[in-house]
Write a structure and sequence with these properties.
30% of the residues lie in helices and 30% in strands. The protein has 133 residues and is of the alpha+beta class. It has a five-stranded antiparallel sheet. Helix 2 packs antiparallel against helix 3 (95-102). The longest helix has 21 residues, at 33-53. The two termini are 12 Å apart. Residues 129-133 have low confidence and may be disordered.
Length: 133
Amino acid sequence: MPIEVLRLPLRHGDPSAPVRHLVRDLLDPWCPPEALGDVLAVVSELVHNVTRHTPGGGELVLTVAAGDLLIEVTDGDTALPVARPPDPRRIGGRGLLLVAGLAREWGARPILDGKVVWARLPLPGVCGSGTAA
C-alpha cells in the first residue's frame, strides 16, 4: 500500500537546497546513504526545474510503495520535458539525463492545468519497507 511521506508546495524562484535538506532529514533515519544520495540528486533536479523554468509554482510529493520511492513534481506549465543529448556548447540542460540515469524509470504526464514529472527510485532495506511514515 503506498504511503505518502511528503507533500510540499513549491514557489517560483525558491532555491532547491532547503527542499533537499528537508527530504534528507525526513528520509535519513530509514535510508542507506547510497539510496539517499540518489534521491536527493533527483529531488534537487526536479524541484529546480519547477522553481526556475516554469511560471508560478508547483508541488513536490514523495510516496513510498513496494520498495520504491515515487518522486512527483507538479507545475502549471503544459510543455512536457524532453531529455536532450549532451552538448558541450550548452551550459546546463543535463538534469533530465541525470534523473534518467539514477531512476528506475521516469516520465511526465499532462494534467488538466499543467503536468507531473515523476521518477521512481529503488530504496533498499528498511527505507522501502513503508516504515518511513
